[in-house]
Amino acid sequence: MKNSIFQAFLQKSLSKKPEVTFFLCFILCAGTSYAAFEDIGIGARPMGMGGAFVALADDAYATSYNPAGLGYVKNFEAGFTRINMFSGAVNYNYSVVAIPMGSAGGLGFSFGMLKDESSIYSENTGSISYSRLLVEKLSLGANIKMLSTGFDDSEWVKDNPYFVETSTSGFTFDVGILAKPVKGLSIGLVGQNLIPVNVSVSESEEDKVPMNLRFGAAYNLAPIAANAQQPVLKEVLETTTISVEVGSRKERETNALKARAGIEAWFANQILGLRAGYNMKKVQDTSSSVCIGASIRVPLSGILLRLDYAAQIFGSDLQDRLAHRISFGLSF
C-alpha cells in the first residue's frame, strides 16, 4: 500500500526541491527505519551541545528534554525556536513558557509544529509540564502531551486508498528525574512517550510513536575553579559545563541507540556563550553529526534577553545536510 502513496507523492513533488522529495519519501516509505515524531532536538542552546541536555535542563527547554528541570528554574522564562533543515525543506517552530511557583513547583507550556516546504505533511506537539522538588537535591517532573499528524487535502491524498483519514492525534506523557547529589554534578533520567500513540492515517498498519529513554550526567567545573591561578581562567572554569548522554528509542521493530556529548562555556561576565557537541545514532548503520553554537545575553531593564544559534552538520555536504536553529528567549 505504501507503494501507491509513494507513486502519488512523486507525481506531486518531482517539481519541488530534491530535499522535499527526500524528506517525504523518508516519512512515507522508510519502513522499519522511520517512526513519527523523530527526536530532532529542540532549542539552539541544547543542540549546540549535541542535544546532551537531559541532565542539565536548567531553562524553559527542560519541557522538551527533562521536565524535572523545571523544579530548579527560578525565573519566568519564555522562548521561541526556529529550525531550518535540508535547505528549508523541513521547518519546525517551537514556543515554550516556564513559570516558577516557589515551593509549589514549576509549570511549563509548549507547542511545536513541524512542516515540510510544500505543506504536504505536518506534526504538532502540545504539552503541559509540571515539576517539584522532592528534596533540595532531587526533582521529579512530568509532561502531558498531545501529538497530532496531518496531510493536506489535495487530490493526491483524496484519491489514494492508503488514507482513511488525513489527520490523527492522541495523548501520551513523559516522566523525568533530575538529581544533584554533589556540587557541580547533576544526573538526569527521562522516559518519553510512555503511552503508545498510533498516528497512522491508514487502517492497514499502525504507526506508533515510540518510547524514548534518556540518561545523562552533567558536570560544572566550578568546584575545580578555585585551583586556577589566573582570574580569567577561573571565570571560564566556573561557567563551563560538560554533559554526556545515552538513549534508546524503539523504531518499529528496531532499537535505535543514541549517544550525545557537549560542552558549554560563558565569557565576558557571562554575556557570550560558546558550545560544541557531538550526536550519534545507531540503528542498523551508524550516523552522526557535529554541532556548534553560540549565545549572547542582553540585560534590559530587569529583563534578560538571550539569542542562541546552533548549527548541526550531518556530513560534508553543508548545503543539503546542515540544520540551523535560532532561539530567542527572555527571563525576569
Shape: globular
How would you write the strand order of the largest sheet? 1-2-3-4-5-6-7-10-11-12-13-14-15-16
CATH hierarchy: architecture: Beta Barrel
Largest sheet: 14 strands, antiparallel, barrel
CATH superfamily caption: Outer membrane protein transport protein (OMPP1/FadL/TodX)
Gyration radius (Cα, Å) is 20 Å
Counting DSSP E segments of at least 2 residues, the number of strands comes to 16
Strand fraction equals over 45%
The top-level CATH class is Mainly Beta
Mean pLDDT: 84
How would you characterize the overall build of this protein?
The chain is mainly β and 332 residues long. It has one domain: Porin, CATH 2.40.160.60. The protein is 15% helix and 50% strand. The protein contains seven helices and 16 strands. It has a 14-stranded antiparallel β-barrel with strand order 1-2-3-4-5-6-7-10-11-12-13-14-15-16. The chain has a two-stranded antiparallel sheet with strand order 8-9. The radius of gyration is 20 Å and the shape is globular. The N terminus is likely disordered.
Task: Produce a short descriptive summary.
The protein is mostly beta strands and 332 residues long.
Task: Kindly list the characteristics that best describe this protein.
332 residues; two-stranded antiparallel ribbon; mainly beta; 14-stranded antiparallel β-barrel
